[in-house]
Amino acid sequence: MNIQEYMNALTDENEKPLDRLVTNGGFCGILRTVGCVGDSLSSGEFETLDREGGHHYYDVFDYSWGQFMAREAGIKVYNFSRGGMSARQYMETFAEEKDFWNPEFRCKAYIIALGVNDLLNNHETLGSTDDICLTDYRKNKQTFAGHYAMIVQRLKEIAPDAKFFFMTMPEEHNRKEIQDLKNAHASLMYAFAEFFTNSYVIDLKRYAPVYDEAFKEKFYLNGHLNACGYALTAKMVLSYIDYIIRHHFEDFKEIGLVNTPWKNYPKV
Q1: Which of 84, 92, 172, 249 could join 211 in a cystine, given CB atoms 3.0 to 4.6 angstroms apart?
Q2: How is domain 33-252 classified at the architecture level of CATH?
Q3: Total-model pTM
């Protein structure tokens, strides 16, 4: 085996994040525990219509993209999510009620996929990294950015060396005001990745397929993903994280030590 040829293929600087869809999770398998903080799309939610045209929603976690990831990569994934979730609700009530801050559930990595309900449905103020108080997350401003950062800061207290992946919203050819919000949300995710240590962006808006009518015909059930849609999302997230790891090997060298009592002190 020519290891240099292998490494050259793994770290091709011209490769885009989803050029290569991995099987069996790729290098994502090194993240032995992953927490998914999110809303309905992180919860495997199915949307049905009754005979009168009424909408009904069911979180079926076994069909969530997180659990598809777990089965494919052989890792443990926690669903820290529920349909309709927002960053504000997560911090104010939900996480505490569900005991999600319990160190028993600390992970080596967290994927945070919030913003749809906050910005598109609840019309929260977006905010910026200026809304973050690094010394006390309780003093963050009451904006989407402030609440989102609270989640990150609280999790960093539990798992200081964990990796964080901030997810953008997929492209759907929405009307301009929705597009503008999604663009602003994506910019904020990149700002968070610069602001917080050990943080990266899963930019589905830029690199995932457009969620147009042709896509939805195959991968949607009414207004939410269907089983194949959640399986495809898992494939994209696994492949994106695999890409990030392959292009930042140095960042993940000590992932096996995260959340253990062991430390490595490289020679100076």
Answers
A1: 172
A2: 3-Layer(aba) Sandwich (3.40)
A3: 0.95
